[in-house]
């Protein structure tokens, strides 16, 4: 046998050994505790297991549903009090330490490359021309509209740039860049309150409900928010109120397990409101800072499903007001996002938007449309599939990133 073959065999044995060791560890860490005997609620609390080395699986989008049954909140099962597992992981369990949320947009700015090249560079090229003709102004307008900035904001930017055309004529490349950053920042709502209400108050956890259409990135976003809160030193509990698909709850659980966060889940097909209620109750007893509730994807056009969502919120509110209702919108769906936002906010009063998949689109301007047309601030943006690819939205840093 050649020396190379010996090396290959040795590496193979090492890999098999490592895989078995990780498997044993994962198996040991997993615990699921029944919270109550009521089969109707069927809620379980999953204790974290050690982190996995691969990102959580993203199951295929859920099939479309058609309706739901209304249940009187007063009929909700009341579970027995539970004892939460100790906050400290079992010996041998090591959880990931995610980075804090601050400064993420700047770190992830290269993910906006598609918007940067079509919007930022496109505009700078035209503005840099010696004398701007009507055709040039039209090109600027088209570039802004193509980026989904919307008609009103486009008109505002173009007219403000036109009033500065004297300045443009003599401006250096850097002057133009700064001017564009300033004008884009102005339409990005720099004064909007983007605080994410995740702090404990009045002796109870902050409750965050996450909603949106199928496949927008809700579960992934809940997982990413949990990580970033843990990175900021907060304690978190997850509620898997997507009882429609067990895979969605599994996916959420995996996110939690990686950072030592517990998940309350229900049986498949169970009442999502009961799970959400139970999650908040468990989080309150466990004195966590934040309870994040993931909900099933639903088409905004299905009134039965929108009613179901309204019920989830009403039932959770039996514990006290919901602090944040985050609507997750897929930036690549363009103006349809505005329509979705309108319907969702009518059903559950959305307090903030999470715009996902901005890394995969040249239409970064959708941030502007959503905020302008609905008055709802974009609070977070998704910039990739990685576990920490979620950033607090900051208008100026965003404009800087797009202009490049
Ligand atoms: N590129 C990119 N992909 C993302 C981002 N956020 C989520 N995704 C991907 O979008 C896909 C759907 O994400 P999910 O979190 O499963 O979506 P969901 O809204 O929970 O889906 P349903 O439960 O079916 O309604 C997954 O492949 C995610 O990795 C993002 O910011 N950028």
TrEMBL record:
Its main location: membrane. Its EC number is 3.6.5.4. Gene3D superfamilies: P-loop containing nucleotide triphosphate hydrolases, Signal recognition particle SRP54, nucleotide-binding domain. Keywords: Cell membrane, Cytoplasm, GTP-binding, Hydrolase, Membrane, Nucleotide-binding, Receptor, Transmembrane, Transmembrane helix. InterPro entries: AAA+_ATPase (IPR003593), P-loop_NTPase (IPR027417), Signal_recog_particl_SRP54_hlx (IPR013822), SR_rcpt_FtsY (IPR004390), SRP/SRP_N (IPR036225), SRP54_GTPase_dom (IPR000897), SRP54_N_sf (IPR042101). It is a peripheral membrane protein. Residues 377-390 form the SRP54-type proteins GTP-binding domain. GO terms for biological process: SRP-dependent cotranslational protein targeting to membrane. It catalyses: GTP + H2O = GDP + phosphate + H(+). It is an enzyme of class 3 (hydrolase). Residues 48-62 have a biased composition (Pro residues). It is found in: Cell membrane; Cytoplasm. One of its GO terms (molecular function) is GTP binding. GO terms for cellular component: cytoplasm; plasma membrane. Residues 35-99 are annotated as: Disordered. HAMAP family: FtsY. Part of the signal recognition particle protein translocation system, which is composed of SRP and FtsY. NCBIfam families: ftsY. This is Signal recognition particle receptor FtsY.
